[in-house]
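Good morning C.,

I know you're traveling, so I'll keep this short. The sequence:
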Amino acid sequence: MLTLWGRANSSNVQKIIWACAEIGQSFDRIDLGGPFGGLDDPAYRAMNPNGRIPTIKDGDVILWESNAILRYLAARHPQAGLLPATPAARAVVDQWLDWQMVSLGIGLRDVMQTRSQAGSPAAQAAETQVAGQFTLLDARLAASAHVAGDDFTIADIAAGISAHRWLALPIARPELPALSRWYAGLRARPAFAAVAALPTR
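The tokens, ready to paste straight into the viewer:
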């Protein structure tokens, strides 16, 4: 049995919940972080010295960093087809995973953190910056069925969670038809039900 530490409203924890649904992996989730605390507990820090969420334990394997966990789960369950077979195609997945974590993820974090300052220069700057990142993704999706190519991969899970949260925010957004088509396809996946009802804040 896989154990997952992290609160259900964390976007990085939601990536793992979705991936587990895609591969048919059952898990026990332990609330941690935010109002649940526990990030500085010595037993947790022994597993994850970074003191953040998520962390998983799968037998003797302990991993933290959400996109590393996605790679592990996809490689552990190749029958699910969440990772391409060739090094070049896998590198494209890695490219978009890194982009999601840094360029998109940090921008979306800034938007979430400035929501209490709606209309302020800081909030407007954050919203403009992240809209630019989603515009970049829209351009990619105009030429590709999925984030890393023709097939659904863990890159779609990572970027899809970010899009799910951004689209739930009460903010102005540009028209992004390719992203809208892709997101509708994500929501139609049976495994998406594992995260659709989870809180986004």
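Safe travels,
E.
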